[in-house]
Amino acid sequence: MWFNPALIHTDALDNIIRHNRPRAELDMVELCLDVMERNNLTQYCFCPNDIHALLLNTHVKIEKWQILKVLKERWQLQPAANAYRYTTYNIDYTNATNYMAVQRTGRYYTVQRDFLEPLRC
């Protein structure tokens, strides 16, 4: 049998879908929002290697392919068209915000706070 998805779509179904996301995605959402909140940012730019290093420093075991899968398949983000200069953040325990701004060059991804807020559980 086939049912139109609109017939069975409810708020409870949205809640179940939101809470059954992969653990890698939940960790990435929390990390990105933490960086944005502590540094008063509306968008966050990073390469997969940048976020991988941050997640490893926060004791989250994750592989780079999991990060790329979340970025490309789940969030459907596209990297910058060319290698440009961007500002990303590293962990700095001597700073009050716990993050230090670093200038790098590469094909980075940009994520907006408005996009991540609904993904937070």
Structure description:
- This protein has 121 residues and is of the alpha+beta class.
- The protein has 6 helices and 4 strands, in the order H-H-H-E-H-H-E-E-E-H.
- The chain has helices spanning 5-8, 11-19, 23-39, 48-57, 64-74, 113-116, and strands spanning 43-46, 84-91, 99-106, 109-112.
- Strands 1-4 form a two-stranded antiparallel sheet.
- A hairpin with a 7-residue loop joins strand 2 (84-91) and strand 3.
- The model has no long low-confidence stretch (mean pLDDT 91).
Layout of helices and strands, plus pairs?
Elements: H1 5-8, H2 11-19, H3 23-39, E1 43-46, H4 48-57, H5 64-74, E2 84-91, E3 99-106, E4 109-112, H6 113-116
Strand coverage percent:
15-25%
Radius of gyration: 16 Å
Estimate the mean pLDDT confidence: 91
Global structural class: alpha+beta
Distance between the terminal alpha carbons, to the nearest Å?
33 Å
Order of helical and strand elements: HHHEHHEEEH
What shape does the CA trace take? Answer: globular
Q: Given the structure, what is the number of helices? A: 6
Low-pLDDT stretches: none
Helix content: 40-55%
Strand order of the largest sheet: 1-4
Largest sheet: 2 strands, antiparallel
Number of strands: 4
